[in-house]
Specification:
Elements (H helix, E strand, L loop, with lengths): L4 E3 L2 E15 L19 E7 L7 E9 L6 H12 L6 E4 L5 H13 L4 E3 L1 E5 L19 E5 L4 E3 L2 H5 L5 E2 L5 E4 L4 E17 L2 E20 L4 H13 L5 H8 L6 E2 L2 H7 L9 H4 L13 E3 L16 E4 L2 E5 L6 E7 L7 E9 L6 H12 L6 E4 L5 H13 L4 E3 L1 E4 L16 E6 L4 E3 L1 H6 L5 E2 L5 E4 L5 H10 L4 H9 L4 E2 L2 H7 L9 H4 L13 E3 L2 H8 L2
Amino acid sequence: MVPGRRFDGQAWRLWALVCLVIAMALPVLTARAQDGPPDIPPMRFVVVRSNAPGCEPNCPEWISADGAIEAGTPSLLKRTLKALKGRQLPVVVNSPGGNVDAALALGRMIRKNKLDVAVGVTIFSGCQPEVRNCNDNRGKGADYFGIAHDDGAMCNSACPLMFSGGVRRVVGDFGYLGVHQITTTYRREKLLYRTTYRIVNGKKKVISTKVVSRKNAGSYKTYEMSRTVEKTLSAYLKEMGIGDGVLDVMKATPASDIRQIPLDDMLTMKLVTSRDTVDLLTTASLCVPDQPATNCREMAGPANKATPSAAARPATAVAGEPAKAKAGGDMRFVVVRGSNPLCNPDCPEWISAEGAITTQTPLKLRQLFATLGDRHLPVVISSRGGDLSSALAMGRLIHERKLDIAVARTEFVDCDPGAWNCLAREGAYAGLSIDTGVECDSACALVVAAGARRLVGPRARLSLYPMGQKPVVKAYLEEMAIGPALFAAIERRSAEGQLDPDTMLKAGLTTGPQSVDALTGSTICKAVAKPDNCRGLPAANAQADAKL
């Protein structure tokens, strides 16, 4: 209490009152749709350029969004978009979820900038985002290169709210999008504050209130969506053109669980805009010369020497087929182990077979089989064809061992096996199988005919043409238990042509509509009847692989 003083003829007194108050904070919609795994780092955004073979000098680019959504995540995306100066790149997201408020802000930012979104994983080549001062990509025209795929990708918890902001929204059959109840955290604070006031003519008038200190007084959580939160989310989803079904599934799924929404249901709910995968936004074929997509960027000059496409490589005439381009030199066989961390410690392995089929190819394959002993690994093949007799010999080796085969190529993660300092670990190189735009032409198709299971996914291409030595080819197909329909289809073609999936299936060349993922996908080793090509690693090695 301050002694009375006289001012302008009015009596007044100053009072200083110190108050101690315990206050409960409002639910900071830091409401987590789930408390994400502690070992998953915060979401980071980097611009990635495709390193798919043959796409240079004009390749697609995208924004890789990987990690947990935190309160500061929207500012990171804002900074990334500002650096792009108006370029509209699709967002490829892989996230376990996180902060709901931040997810809503991200979704609105994505919609405001008219960006597409896909659930996918970006596999980097050269520099990795987490490595500082990396010089691997210096002089190549981009900081980061890689490929995007949906196998093992996830968008869970709060992530679907971010995902909803996309103009085009795709998940694909091998991505995982899951939701559940919101977990809201209420935080208590103990506030110590000082209020100063004066008394004028007997009435108290507050002059100022100042917080002296704040102390954490604990917190508690609720696991059911409040009406306020429900109203907020419902309004947001309606704003994004998403049906109420998404919110219904969230409310019906306990916070301790997570429910994957099937693709058909996502279409009904308008959560996805089509059945497409991440390839819709990142495949190299987007950058065709006549009408490239908006996320394509052309680079010219010596800083980025274009990787020639298979069709542009020098042609070499081979006995038994017309002169044509051969991809990647002579065929190389490499044992590969799936590098997706989701499969550890038990991951699929396969034989990568890429390049032209030459007279030395059967010998190389026989030597590889000798090192594998009785192990039965599927063959993942990419080839523009080659020597007919060698292709038949290669096919017979595969048929004899009753191996499965699929048309795809392998993207090596750590290093290329052709490099002198690239060493296999535990007998295999780390990699991923990709079938988008992969070709298997002429003699290669006869190798495929030898597999026990024969898979050519809708994104791969298989072509045939009328070959010489018709009796030999016909006898070989009969030997492989392929009906006469395939040989008749070959005979009907006046020139080489791509076979569509229905034709291949009806002619007996393929055994089903599946793609290479049925043989090499990260989840196949979790099946009750575990495939023969699954192999576990010792715990220490599995942990090391999981960090890749």
